[in-house]
Amino acid sequence: MTILYPREARSVLLPLAVLAVLLYPATPSVAVEVLSAEELESHCRVLPEDSEGADGQYCIRYVQGFIDGAVATDVRVMLNVEQELARQESLTQRAQRVRGRDLRRAAGYAEFCLGDPVPLREVVDHVAGDLSAAELPPELSARQFVYAVLRNRYPCD
After folding, report:
1. I need a labelling partner for 124 at 20 to 30 A (CA). Which of 39, 102, 144, 145 fits?
2. Where are the domains of the chain?
3. What is the pLDDT of residues 57-108, one digit of tens each?
4. What's the CA gap between 36 and 144, in Å, rounded?
């Protein structure tokens, strides 16, 4: 039996570890499980009685996260589009484009406008109320439902 000392062990084990990683079949990445509208409704249902409980906070934070994500994404998209346009347009064209639009340009991409400011609880109450009043098909995702509520309740004029 051969005994490997620490230095020898590293020189043997490191290449074996690298080889194992390279030969290990890549597993397909799995997307995050989609939250259904029915599941969100089960959390939002308790909102009027227990907004500070786990379910109430889940509902509130889901809606808040949806809005934050939509705004962050839309701003980034807007900036990327504007950078691309800036490379291709003259100063006169840029002036006409910028002056002809509202300063809240990103909101147009989201297709909902929350204004300045809309209390989060107001938005959550609309989502929760619409969830409880709707017949929710099992395949409807929470994000599709929240997006539809925001577009319906807070349209851009």
Report:
1. 102
2. 36-153
3. 999 999 999 998 887 787 766 666 666 666 665 655 555 555 544 434 555 5
4. 9
Percent with pLDDT over 90 in the chain: 42
List all residues 6 or more positions away from 115 whose beta carbon is below 8 Å from its beta carbon: 154
pTM of the predicted protein model:
0.64
All residues at 6 or more sequence positions from 125 whose CB lies less than 8 Å from its CB, including other chains = 47
User: DSSP letters of the chain?
Assistant: -PPPPHHHHHHHHHHHHHHHHHHSPPPPP-PPPPPBHHHHHHHHTTTTT-TTSHHHHHHHHHHHHHHHHHHHHHHHHHHHHHHHHHHHS-HHHHHHHHHTS-S-HHHHHHT----S---HHHHHHHHHHHHHHS---TT-BHHHHHHHHHHHHS---
Is residue 55 over pLDDT 60?
Answer: yes
Does the pLDDT value for residue 148 go beyond 80? yes
